[in-house]
Records
---
Amino acid sequence: MNDTAADLRFVPLDAGDPATLDAWLRLTLDSAEDVPLSAAPPCAADLTGSVRFAPPGTALAGELALLGGQAVGALRLVFPDGAPVAVVDQLLTAPKERRQGIGTALFRRARALAAEHGRTRLVFDVVQALPGGPARDEGPAAFATALGASPAGSHEGVHQWLDLGAHDPLADGAPAVPAGYRLQRWGTITPDAFAIAVSELERSLGESPPETWGEGPGAIATSHVRRFERMRVGRGRRAYHVGAVHEETGRLAGFTSASKTTGNPEHLLQGMTVVAAAHRGHGLGLVLKLANLAHVREYEPRVRLIETANADSNRPMIALNEAMGFVPQERFVSWEAPVAPAV
Ligand code: ACO
């Protein structure tokens, strides 16, 4: 280890320590163009809220690396309940401080924290350029390789962005709603009537551990969707939904979700779209997404750039997005490293 790394001091990111949080925010915002996986710039309200509000079924740990009192690096790990992994959510060296071993020290610290939480593997996504697509920094993959990590082959996919200034998928109007269904809008908070149905549709995609659904008395209050909403609201996010109700049964056949941070009026994140297996084949996915885009634009007229991410295994959704005018921008590839490095 060189002298810089040896002189580092790690302090926890703690909601009760505003000075450290401010330094972390400044470092993260100042380094914005280097942070992978993000079409929208980081939002201060979202970042601050994320320290208090972890996604359901996870715990978070964050640390700031200080050198002579200056913030030079940051590390955030996500610990999914009951899983053997720690997910590296942020591992960042201040742009002016790179190639002095700080990233290596952060990675070593990540391994130590993961071991303290009983995890055996560190996992993280690395962004790559698409053939013919915009250039992407190859440094993160070189760094990860140098630290003994390798592609995990577990999940890979594509980030797609839709620039409404270049293509408006609603220019010719919205497609007709298939016979036998009606559309229902809601905002950040899912109505009680749909809370369990939305949670179960998410469970059908395997997006959350099975213990988070909420069954029996108090099912709605403890449902996955209510837990997710608490995080969203705590991070200052606004969400927009459209669901498709099957008129004969009154059941929710599918829904789509889009959300915004408070700090980026032009950016929208297209989140989950799911249609129950029994209701597929009617074109509901596209109907829902376009109806929700119209919904968003009524309340967020400045939205211009929509980002979304899909695993390669979800070819139908990638194709649907392309039909809407989304353009693939970059690939994400999962990498992993053992928590105990080979000696
Ligand atoms: N190009 C090629 N190799 C690199 C690069 C690069 N840009 N950066 C690091 N390396 C390799 C080198 O082998 C380097 O050793 P050397 O300098 O003796 O040649 C080795 O990694 C260790 O580098 P450090 O100095 O410890 O790393 P640094 O402090 O520069 O931080 C980091 C690297 C974290 C990737 C930094 O560039 C950064 O913050 N980038 C933006 C955020 C990011 O992409 N983070 C994700 C990293 S992947 C992960 O999460 C594990």
---
Amino acid sequence: TNVGAITADMIDMLSKKSFPLCMQNIHVSMKQNHHMRHGSRLQYGLFLKGIGLPLDEAIKLFRTEFTKSMDVDTFDKKYSYGIRYNYGKEGKKTDYTPFGCMKIIMNNPPAVGDAHGCPFRHFDTDFLKQRISSNGVSKDGVETIMKYTKGGHCQVACAKYFELTHGISGSSSEVEMFIQHPNQYFENSQKLLNG
Ligand code: SF4
């Protein structure tokens, strides 16, 4: 629907407020390491396609970061194909669908050094707490989220995180929304922020 509306230089800003923690984490990791592993390129690349980032802008975004640690030729040889593949321009030419939460939570758990997966499922407790509170969630809010996480209710924890970071509920109130898909999270956030 909004294909073409999003450009590479908007991603950093959007990641801070409107990306779910799973995608924000991959983005932060890409900026730190100037690289992404396969699982992240798939999970994040398809998410970005889903929010309306066109193929040429996706290549620009990844090329800008990756070429801080490698030359342009290496990038083009090793990584352009995969990005075009995500957009159905290579291989089987399938228009791949962005991953939903269940797939991210249940499949292909991240190994050491990987940035993909669901933080509410795959982060260790202290790291998750630290990340959530550095995004402005109060101490009480962090405790509430951790309670859901410990009970295995990742998507409820994610919904609570959404509500708290968008000022739509307090830390002790019931969770109102249900997060099924990272792209749904993004759309809900943009709707709220842009009216
Ligand atoms: Fe991402 Fe879904 Fe996990 Fe939220 S619950 S962090 S949207 S995978």
